[in-house]
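Hi F.,

I've been meaning to write this up properly since the lab meeting, where we talked about keeping a consistent format for the predictions we share between groups. The idea is simple: the sequence comes first, exactly as it goes in, then the structure tokens exactly as they come out, then a line or two of notes. No screenshots and no reformatting. I'm using this chain as the first example so we have something concrete to point to.
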Amino acid sequence: MRGAKLTPRKLTSEEEHEIRDRLRLLSTVGKQVEGTSQTNDITTKPNYYDELRVAPAQGAVNNYYASISMSSGVGLLLLAQLKEILIPLLKTGRSRTVVDLYTRYSATIKYIKRCYETNIFDSTSDGWRYINIVRSMHQRTHSLMNSPECREELRKPDSEYVGDEYVWVNQYDMALTQFAFIGLFLLRPDKCGAYHVSELDMSNIVYYWRLLSYQLGIEDRFNLFVYSHDMSKQIRLLELILDEFKQKLVTPRDETGLAMARGIMLALEDLVTETTFNILEHHWFEVVSLTGNDKLAPYDGMGERWKLFRFRLIFGYLVKSELALKWVNRMYKRKSEKFCDDSTRIRKKLAKKYPDQVYQLDDHHTIPKATKH
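Output, unedited:
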């Protein structure tokens, strides 16, 4: 054990108001500010940068790599169903097929892994290079979505994205993406197999993500991860963000968003060999539904049940041993590297296996629609 586990305390009324005020600023002003803020100078370390803390913070992220990856995967499946995220994904055309989804998210896996392993403030490191690739991608998407032609195309009387002050790919969207990566891990580490994670571990992970988010262009006033010194406040803020997700994930779910979420699992099938979309839906149902359905679907035959057995063996039993957790992390990192490096074979396989899965906007370009050719 690396210290005591986190037991969040009840916040005072003043602290609760502080958290809610922060969320209110994020959900109003945050929607008016470009997602990659120009006020963050990535060549200059922020004033809260602490050289002595960076190494243990980065170590904590890597010690729980497999568990955080599960959180990131489930968060991504939810994120893809939010219209403010989904519409730009579809508009760029870079998430149109299962092969496109593999290309996009294998790159994300590669980038985030190197950001966890290298010095993101060193301009010669892989982490720095990949951060700049991501920043450029976000800036291009922001420019596309906020061009006069695109804004007019997406401007509909019943749309919540019509105000002149609203910008696509904004700081609020970036905060939702932050949550997608590690929010569920911090709220429910047990669901991610992190049975031994301590309060210090969690504080360090929050601190590292504050630094990483700064480099990605998230202003501190909109950054979700600012309470590493007070994890009770941090957890409360994340609880409220999860509530935001649930409110946005209306029932019935957006057809294309849900189809894309399932498509992401298809794209990742060579990596997540011990689970399926349905297994994850069962596993996380008490926290948040991936589908919006009131009832869980039955497991699909012996093949899925065999995966379920392996999933439960790893995340419900093996990782309760810290020694086994280290082994699982090493194996998952190697598996991730192979998944990213074997792109030619995987792309060819996915193109042959899922040729008819296509994700695109409908004729009005406001309500996404899934189609098959």
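Notes:
Residues 13-372 form one domain.
The chain has one domain: 13-372.

If this format works for you, I'll send the rest the same way.

G.
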